[in-house]
Amino acid sequence: MNEQQSQATALQAFMERNPTTVEDGQVSTVIFRAVPSAYLDRIMTGSRLFCQQTDKSMADELIGQGYELNAMPAEPCRLAIVLATKHREEVLYHLALAGELLPEGGRLLLTAANTLGAGSLERRCEELMGQVESFSKHKCRVIQAIKCTTDLNTSLLRAWKAGGEMRRNPDTGLYTCPGIFSWKQPDAGSVWLAEGLPGDLAGRGADLGAGYGFLSRAALARSPGITELHLFEAELKALEAARLNLAEGVGRRAVHFYWADVTTGLDIGGLDFVLMNPPFHAGRGALPALGQAFVRAALQALKPGGRLFLVANRHLPYEAEIQNHAGDILISEQAQGFKRIVARRR
Predict the structure, then answer these.
(1) 188/42 same-domain check
(2) How many angstroms separate the first and last alpha carbons of the chain?
């Protein structure tokens, strides 16, 4: 059971123990980083539900279960639920949004795995809301607070809200925000791959796991022969940042953006090149199969002779995956704990 599932299970246990948490009648509930799980059924018995989830794989599951995603309520919510992520600034941002949406007497629930700093987050929640109560289950805490306007730390709320919003990084000039991989500065592996990209990329290409568009921007700047570039990214926040970061400097070239889970395959083919710094974590656990799925998707989308440009941590097992799926390795070099691979589709 991963951290998100554990948090959802702890939340379900809390609700079973505290059945009055969900009120009868047509009230609104907002859930930040909603996870598909049984606790949602209990909330739906008495609420109009607003699920916020920008991770494509979980979003698809929620949509498949009939939930509407990523609309914000216009009216105050009697219940706001925040599921923690590994991005601390994002959790604080969601707590601030919840604090704004709740009316006097509204209930806030924050569920956090111990590995995500549940104790520290309980203290931060208390700083914002005043008195809190906590419940422990499945190596998680469910932290409860009732909004009292006189206890609400409004200056902290404003600071946390500003800290989670999309903005331009003054060091890189790129738009980014908490909740995006490597949002404070470009990943060192991506920087090294960008430095090694040739200037002769041409035709149609793709950036898989494009993040906020760092590799795409580098490729477009270096290779005027690129005519089309397709960015695939599972995190909607990152894709929105990529749109901003590629709003200029593209010229007449076509740039397309896809909120997509690359591991399920690509609805595109005949590509001349593919760029990627593939993910290899699910939550906090290493999962090399994610990157291997990216390699397979890339090679299937390339035309014969098309090139794959990949960077990864040195230990990750991608070479065999390339060779087993019609790829020939042209260049393989290592530095700074990374390996940079150029392969060609047979």
Answers:
(1) no
(2) 40
